[in-house]
Amino acid sequence: MFNMINKLATVNGVSGNEDAVREIILNEAEQYSDDITQDDIGNIICHKKRDNAPSIMLYAHMDEVGFIVSNVTPEGWIKFQPIGKVNSSVLLSKQVVIGSNMVRGVIAVRPKHLAKDDDGKNTSISELFIDIGASNRQQALNHVALGDYIAFSSDYIEFGEEGIKAKALDSRVSCAVILDLMRDNYIYDMYYIFTSQEKIGYRGTQALDLATRPSLAIKIDGAECSDFPKSPDEKSIMKVGGGASISILDGNCVHDIEQVKNLYTYAIKHEINAQYKDISPAKNSNNFLNLKCGGIKTVSVNFPYRYMDSPSNVASKSDIKSVKDLIGGYLKDEQI
């Protein structure tokens, strides 16, 4: 599974341009699917048939945050706009690749000694530019074009006892877990779905046309946690290394409480590390899936991770294994 995570995390799949990720998933999923379809927005729907059985849906998104070339200055600097929500504080001096030619560049800002007085606020993305080593506009345009996608350049690294570091772990770990679960057989009519364009408004999920209303939809995702040093009055119940993270409430989506409790009880009974996810006002794709087909029961099983939507997400291998073991075991042993 971790070889697949490495493979997925080191290709680029900015929202709307997930082709490289999609190709890897399709090549792997075709071995374990009875039928695979792809819709016009780029979602992949894999079906592993079981006649006269309840249908279960496992899904994750494929995409990552990134940028798009919006202008090239006369001096050859690349100006850009974000695709998805990106905190500008994580961008300075980060390496990126641009377009299908994978042109390398570094995100930069006007040097402090030349800048206007700083009022303490973060540098805005509009003040940043990418240095690709060009000395004028034409030189830059020989290598990049307006509308080219830009992605973080970041290696997959394993460190410490259980740590992994890469970009886009929230999506790529989740896709790898589903691909691994697809290898097994369950008593249900299984749909394994990989959605596009989550980072720009859950567009893949919103466009998803389900042929069958699933009895339960299980979303796999990363859950950002704040378990780093903090002031005594700040509290977080979710920790990297604490196991699979089960959601109770995401935005205005209240997950099926019976399934939530059953998942947690199953984890404790079978000695799988699990924890509840911090309740957050932030939406996720279940907010939209929950309302399809007259209402779909949802749960979300996550792995906790740090430094969301940056080039260096950090997660624990043990937590990822717990997510896979919890979902795989639950689908085999429990009546849903």
Order of helices and strands: HHEEEEEEEEHEEEHEHEEEEHEHEEH
Compute the number of structural domains: 2
Taking the sheet with the most strands, its summary is: 11 strands, mixed
Kindly state the number of beta strands: 19
Q: Summarize the amount of helix as a percent range.
A: 10-25%
End-to-end separation: 26 Å
CATH class wording of the largest domain: Alpha Beta
The CATH superfamily of the largest domain is: Zn peptidases
Describe this structure in words.
The chain is an alpha+beta fold and 336 residues long. The chain has helices at 2-9, 19-29, 137-141, 169-181, 203-207, 257-269, 286-289, 317-333, and strands at 35-38, 44-48, 55-61, 66-72, 78-83, 95-98, 103-109, 128-131, 149-152, 157-159, 163-166, 189-195, 216-224, 244-246, 249-250, 253-254, 274-276, 298-306, 313-316. It folds into two domains: 2-64 and 167-333, Aminopeptidase (3-Layer(aba) Sandwich), CATH 3.40.630; 66-152, Peptidase M42, domain 2 (Elongation Factor Tu (Ef-tu), domain 3), CATH 2.40.30.40. It has eight helices and 19 strands. It starts with a helix and ends with a helix.
